[in-house]
Amino acid sequence: MAVGGGKRDILLCDLDAFFASVEQRDHPELRGKPVIVGGDASRRGVVAACSYEARAYGVRSAMPMRQALELCPRAVVLPVRMSRYREASDQVFSIFDRFTPDVEAVSIDEAYLAVSAGRGVETAEQIRDLVRRELDLPLSVGVSCNKLLAKVACRLAKPDGLRALWPDQVAGVLWPLPVGILPGVGPKAEERLVRAGIRTVGDVAAASPQLMESLLGSFGHTVYQYAHGRDDRPLATDHQARSLSEEMTFATDVGDAEQVLSALMEMAEELGHRLRAAGLKARTIGIKLRFPDFRTITRATTLGQATESDSTIYRVACELFLRHRGHPPWRLVGVSVSGLEQWQQMCFPGLTGASSQDGVDRTLDALRERFGKPVVFRARRLPPAGAAPEPGSRRPRSPSAK
Questions:
Q1: Does 392 score more than 70 pLDDT?
Q2: Active-site residues: which are they?
Q3: Is the pTM of this model over 0.85?
Q4: Is 238 contained in some domain?
């Protein structure tokens, strides 16, 4: 079901520095120390998460680990333990469920909640108290009447705080802030706006919708509405996800199609794993491409038979990319699966009816579950010979079904 704003208070609950906070909780000796969770610096790993102590040195998520350790040489570096983080996430979401059935999971550590109008701040205080007392984790919460203002309020509340932001406060609170506070306005978009003399949210509000669209394409209209505190997006509170997706924003624009194909394989493996873990198959596979001028296209294909196979998702995503790639370079690439169906695995590797590809997928799943991260992957994910891997940021854009 979809829950609209206006008659309900909307909360955005966001666990602070989630992976690092779980590690500091599980290892009390790390409290107060700079902690980085991520890949091996010697293998061009990237930062998956970092504590606020590490952020004080300029360390950020998606930063190359080598650069992070140059900024903070005394940081404690720990490997990703995804199974542990999923367990903690499930515990937090179970607390959310005590207060309302209207929960939209944004990611493993973030969710929108809808509660009775006038009860938002009180509910936020109770949730934060329970998460701290029962799970010993910090949680920031923003409260408002729509998703946008709740999101901004949550950013203002960080770390480990609570903030409400209402429509009558937009001019006084929102307009003086840098335009990058608005959801979806990343560093490149903010740079483009600043070059046009638009530095604050108030500058956006004072601009014309036509100017914003000329600078940011169709997204410019959304940014203009956001600047006025307007957001009519409903909460998608279906207990079963309607779609799953992964996106990768490259650190620098990529002009080599082989690097994009490598990224598509990584995302296809991740989506296949998420489908199988949730007992789902997908009938529609799509891609998303963004170019340096922020022009964005999406294309999709509906299959005759639903799938949860990594190789099928990759094959279709490749076909769509090669057909619609336009002219390089590319800034962002994404893969999505939708038309989700529940299914039960009837065959197992080694038994009649199970394909060899099924066996590969499930072997990779088993290794991932055992070690908490992908430890074996297909060679297609390797960058082309002679090409330096571009560290980018990959993120899930919709939650797996809980």
A1: no
A2: 110
A3: no
A4: no
